[in-house]
Amino acid sequence: MTQNIYDDPEFFGNYSQLGRSKQGLDGAAEWPALRAMLPRMHGLNVADLGCGYGWFCRWAREAGAATVLGLDVSEKMLARARSSSNDPGLTYARADLEHLDLPAAGFDLVYSSLAFHYIENLRGLLDTVHRALVPGGRLVFSIEHPIFMAPRQPGWSVDAEGRKQWPLDSYQIEGPRITNWLADGVIKQHRTIGTLLNHLIGAGFTIAHVDEWGPTDADLAARPELAEERERPMMLLVSATR
């Protein structure tokens, strides 16, 4: 079963203080780039894997989606999502993405934000998503960039000329990485970019767009604290079609 760290009281309490938890999609700096990858939402049947507070689910309905299914392993996340809307076109359910069952050809769009790096059997999940999409359907997701997931501690170092360095720790060795983010013992699954993209291809997807996301000049003007994100990619955004 997927590690359910989001139901850990310490983790959930710290997570609730993040900007993206308080401000929703507007608090996620990568959202404009991710939104640009999405199809026109009108009339679509949509699934959100790792829906969290349900921010994207509500946005999709407001943008014209016919139905939206939000899935998450965390009861605390689902309770927050359900309390934020009584829209009959929205359904929230608990699901372990490691063992996901979705109806064949049931969705036009499957979306996921920063959840796939927790999944050990990612290829199995992608196979499930491929079956669940109609022909021509779209998978759009964000994931922690593999370079971001494999740094040596404590992080930045500085070379002899004063330039920041982001040394990698066994980038080619894939598997679980234990991090202390918001709480101790958070398990994420590191895999190389090549493995990630080949899983998509092997599952039958056609890759449409890949974005090693970084802030624009406008982003930095509004949020100077994002400057670090230009030193190394933190997120990978991917759009693929069935």
Automatic annotation (TrEMBL):
The keyword Manganese does not apply. Residues 48-141 form the Methyltransferase type domain. Pfam families: Methyltransf_11. GO terms for molecular function: S-adenosylmethionine-dependent methyltransferase activity. One of its GO terms (biological process) is methylation. Keywords: Methyltransferase, S-adenosyl-L-methionine, Transferase. It comes from the Bacteria. InterPro entries: Methyltransf_11, SAM-dependent_MTases_sf. This is SAM-dependent methyltransferase.
